[in-house]
Each structure stands twice: as structure tokens, then as C-alpha cells.
Amino acid sequence: MQQERRTESLSARLLQQQLLAEVGVLALKGTPIPELMQRTAALVAEGLDAGFAKVAEYLPAENRLLVRGGVGWEPGTVGSATLGADLESPAGFALRTGQPVISNHLEGERRFRTPDLLIRHGIRRAVNVIIQGEGRPFGVLEADKRRQSIPGKSSNWSSRIC
User: Fold this and answer.
1) What is the mean pLDDT of the chain?
2) Does residue 15 fall inside a structural domain?
3) Residue 156 falls within a domain, yes or no?
4) Are 44 and 18 in contact (CB under 8 A)?
5) How far apart are CA 39 and CA 26, in angstroms?
6) 26 lies in some domain
7) In whole angstroms, what is the distance from residue 50 CA to residue 48 CA?
8) Are 121 and 139 in contact, with CB atoms under 8 Å apart?
9) For the domain that residue 70 is a member of, what is the CATH number?
């Protein structure tokens, strides 16, 4: 049983490294930014077995985060949906604190509110990291899951993140 978990963990890490390398190659090849954001979201969702992911650009004048790339979301989300860039969302919390955010139980969070976009999609878990730009953050990369955990598998994000 323990050997199976180690093998699964190693396989997951190798997949994540392969997907990360793919993002790097796309960036180095000069992939247009909208395509790069969309592909990055897809690769993050795959690598974390998340089902949902998004790249959100910070719009300082509006104090909002615009979803610029994403997978799993209802049609029309990418390019139009926004999230609060303050404590209105896990992404906003990451942006404001400068720290990655991992939440395994959004329904019990006290640090921020869960945005309607996540509630509508039944999201129960989220992980966020800042995408650094020149002199200020560009935005946030977020992966989301509907399910809490799968029997026999780890119950938190930490086991999926290198």
C-alpha cells in the first residue's frame, strides 16, 4: 500500500515537471499571451488534478481580477468574469498578502469570502499564487476543485503541490 502511494506520488511529480517544462517552452517560443494564459490554466488543472483553473489579470483601476484564461468554467467566463482583488476572493487574498493561498475547505474560510463564481461551480478547494509582473503583480494563477477528497487519497492540496 505504501509503495503504491510512493509510485503514485512519483508519477504525479514527473507529470507536473513535464507540464511545467511545457509552459516554459511555450513562453520561450513567444506564444501569444492569450494563448499562453489559456494553455497554462489547462496544464495547471491537469497537473494538480483540479478540474478548474484560471489566470486572472489584476486591473488596479478597478481593483478587480479579470479571468483571462481558464478551464472548467461555464462558457463566457474567460474574458468577462471578474473577482474582487481585495479580501473578496482567495485570489485577492493572495494578491494582497503576497503569499500563496491554499484552502482545502472554502466553506469554512475566515480569511476571505468565496466568490459567486466559485460557489456557482461548486468549488470547495482552491490554491492561488501570484504571477509577478514588472514592478508589480500581473495577477494570480488559481487551481480549483469541487470535491473535498477521494477515499484512499490525500485530503489536502499539499500532497499534490511540489
Assistant:
1) 84
2) yes
3) no
4) no
5) 9
6) yes
7) 5
8) no
9) 3.30.450.40
Domain total of the chain: 1
In tens, the pLDDT along 7-59 reads 776 666 665 667 666 666 666 678 788 998 899 999 999 988 999 999 999 99
What CA–CA distances, in Å, run from 116 to 11, 63, 82, 122, 123?
34, 17, 10, 10, 10
Q: 2 versus 40: which is more confidently predicted?
A: 40
CA 10 vs CA 13, 19, 85, 118, 158: distances in Å: 5, 14, 35, 30, 14
Query: What pLDDT score was predicted for residue 152?
Result: 44
Q: Is 139 within 8 Å of 58 (Cβ atoms)?
A: yes
> Residue 15: which domain range?
2-150
Residue 160 lies in a domain: no
pLDDT at site 21: 67
Alpha helices in the chain (DSSP H): 2-28, 33-47, 90-97, 116-120
